[in-house]
Amino acid sequence: MTCEDAWRPMVGPVVCAGLRMEARAVRRGLTRIPVVVVGYRARRADRLPAACAALVAMGFGGALDERLRPGDVLVADEIRGGAGPVPCRAAHMLAGELIRDGLSVQVGPLVTTDHIVGRAERALWAAGGARMADMESAVIAARAGGRPVAAVRVVVDGPGHPLLHPGTVARGIAARRVLARTGPALERWGALLVSGGAGHGDGAGDADGIGDGGVRTP
Asked: Does the 3-191 domain belong in CATH 3.40.50.1580?
């Protein structure tokens, strides 16, 4: 994406990935939605477009909740950090689309930090209800300017699966494969969002049984 493109109004959502490897994985399943690399800790968030239907933070994350296992997907219903919590519209609708494609998905609050979360801090955030941590989503949400925001994170590490461990490489490869499968569901959700069908979709997800602690798989 050129600088000129970055400021051109876009009809659909735009995916925001912190790392190039995350962006490459997400792009594999996308045909219409652009992906912008915003850098580690979203230091290049100035690359985000001035207008689009929604901003979607996507990539890897660390689980705070032991119910989330490596390879699981968390769709945030709230992004915490920065200036305060930001609700994510139609999170359950997006989760439902991902489940349709055979992914193991849960919904719940996501917290953004500027550092790797240690064991004590992990427990503190979890006690407050946060289910996963990342380093970019709240920064992206702060730039949304009233536009809908979504966050989709694939678990790489968490309780019982430390980041600094030989198994992290294998978990990272597996998480990248999961991330590469999210594209079709994201495009279906984006089409609903643009058409207005996902504007108040959370209730539909609740009716399908997708709750904060529930995992839905085929």
From this structure: yes
